Amino acid sequence: CGRMVQSDSLIGFEGVPPQLDPAFDSVQVAPGYSARTFFSWGDAVMADAPEWNPDATDDWQAQLKQAGDNHDGMHFFPFSENPDSHGLLVMNHEYVNPPLHPNGMTLVEGRRPLDEVRKEQAAHGVSVIEVKKDAQGQWQRVMPSRYNRRISAMTPMAVSGPLAGNDALKTASDPSGREIIGTINNCSSGFTPWGTYLVCEENWHNYFVNHDPEDMARRVSHKRYGIEGKGMSKLYGWETADPRFDATPDPTQPHGGHVHEPNRFGWVVELDPFDPTSTPVKRTAFGRYCRECSVLSLGDDGRMAFYSGDDTKGEYVYKFVPAGRYVPGADQANRQLLDSGTLYVARFDADGSGEWLALVHGQNGLTAENGFADQAEVLLNARAAGDQVGATPMDRPEWVAVHPHSREVYVTLTNNDNRGVKWPTDKANPRPNNLHGQILRWHEEGADPTATAFTWEVFLLAGEQPGASDADGQPVPAHLTGTINGDIFSSPDGLAFDEAGRLWIETDFGDEEAAMQAMGTNQLLCADPRTREVRRFLVGPRGCEITGITWSPDYRAMWINVQHPELSFPASDGKTRPRASTILITKHDGGVIGT
Ligand code: FEO
Ligand code: CA
Ligand code: CA
Ligand code: CA
C-alpha cells in the first residue's frame, strides 16, 4: 500500500490489501510483523495426550486431552511474577467442523454413532494452556503444566444464583437442578477483575429438539429461542445417541425427562484458570439468552457492568450490573459478586438517547399477568422479558468493547438480511437487507457503568465506499455501501481495545458470497476511535473467520484465532485437513502491536 503514516494517528502500521485469491490459504500481516501458528485443534493439552493424527482417527478420549475445535473468545491471564512473559491463555472452542472425523459426520440408520458424538462433545468447551517466553524471548507453550486443562460438553459444572435448584433446571438426570453437565457453543467470552474467565453459551438451542408441538407452543423457554421441533436438532443430532439432548417432555420420567435440559444452557460460566481442580460455575443472575460475550466495565469505585450481545437477528443488547463492588484483594467476597445484581436490556431511541430497562419481576410489566411468575422466570426467559419491556431489536449484536480511558462502549452489529422485512429500519439499524453490519458506540451517563441512561451514535456502517462499482461495472447499491474512513470490510464480529485505545475489529462474513467479492477473506482491522480511520492489519485464509483477541500485558504479543479454515490451513500444503488455530503476532522490532 505504501500509504503515508500520520504521526498523530494511533495506527502506526502499513495496511494490507484485501486478499482476493480464491485459493489463498495462509495469513498475511502488516509489514514489519510476523504471525505464527501457536495452538491448533488436536494439539496436546494434557501431559498424557497423544499426538494429533492427521487422519483424524484420534478417539474421543484422546480429544478430551487435546485442543478442541473452532477456537473463539480468548483471554491472557498473567502470573503476578513476570506478567509480561508468563501467563495462562484461556480460550473457547465454539463448535465442531466435519474434518473432526476421518469421513465427516455420519448417520447410521438414522442415528449418530455414539463415538462420533462423544468426540464432538469433547472438542467443545475451553482450553487452558500455560505460555511463557523462552531464553530467546520467544513465546512457547509450557508442557507439561499443572494448569493445562480441557473443559468440554462432558465436564460437570455447578449452578449458582437465582435459578440454582429451581424446578425449571431439574431433570431426570439431575433432580437437584444444581449440577449441569458441560458447556456448549462457547463463542466469545469475558473476564473479571479477580482473575476468572467468563465462558459464554451462544447458540445452544441448535443442540436440542422438542418433538411435541403442543408443548413447544406454550413453552417460552424453548420456542422463543428457536429449538427445533421436527426431525433432528439443527446442528449435530446428538439426541439420537445421547438422550439428554432430546427435550421432548416425557411424563413417565421424573421432571419430565430432559424437557428442562435446554434451560441449563445460555448462561455465563465462571472458570478459575489458576485452580485446575476448580468446578466451573453457571451464574444464572446474568439471564439466559444466546450470549455472545460478557465484557467488563469497571468504575473507579469498584462498581461494574458486564455487557453482552444476543447474536440472533432482531435480538437485544444486555448488561448485568452486580449489586456489590469489586474490592481488590477481597478474593472470597469478589467470588460472590456474580450471584446478585440487575439485568438490563437496551432501548436505543431515535434522538440519540437510550435507556437501560431493568428486567426485574414486578417492574416494567414483568408480572404474573404477563407470563412472568417470578424473577427466576424473568431470567430464564430473558428474551421474552426484553420483548415485554420494549427493548430495541438489533442487527445481531456480537462483541462489546469498552474504551480503556473514556469507558465508552462499542458493539458490533454483524449483519441482518431480514432488516427492512421482519424489522423496520431505525436509527441504530438503518439499512434494509443489511449484509455488511455496523458498529455503534454509547456513553453511559457520567461514564458510570451502572447508569440507566446513555447517549449513542453509529460509529461506522461497514460495506463498500460510496460510489464503488461491482465487478460488472455497475454501481454498488446504497444498502451495501457504508461510511468507513479507510479500508473496507463486512460483518464486524470480534472487537477489543488495546491499552492505548486502538479499536481492533475482526470480521465474519461468507467470503464466497457475491456481495463480498471486494472484501477478500476475513480479516483483522484497526480503528482510531478519535478520527474513525480504519486500516487492515491482517487477512486470513479462504473460508475462515477471524475471531478471539488478546495480548500480553505489555501489548507486545497478540494472539488471535483463525476459525473454521476450509482449505489446508495451517499446514497450507493443499492436502492436510484444515485446523482451527491460534496465531501469535509479534513485531520484528519487539514493539507494541499496532504502533
Ligand atoms: Fe459465534 Fe455470534 O458468533
Ligand atoms: Ca462471534
Ligand atoms: Ca459471527
Ligand atoms: Ca464463529
From TrEMBL:
This is PhoX family phosphatase. Signal peptide: none annotated. Pfam families: PhoX. The lineage of its organism: Bacteria, Pseudomonadati, Pseudomonadota, Gammaproteobacteria, Pseudomonadales. InterPro entries: 6-blade_b-propeller_TolB-like, PhoX. It comes from Stutzerimonas marianensis. It comes from the Bacteria.
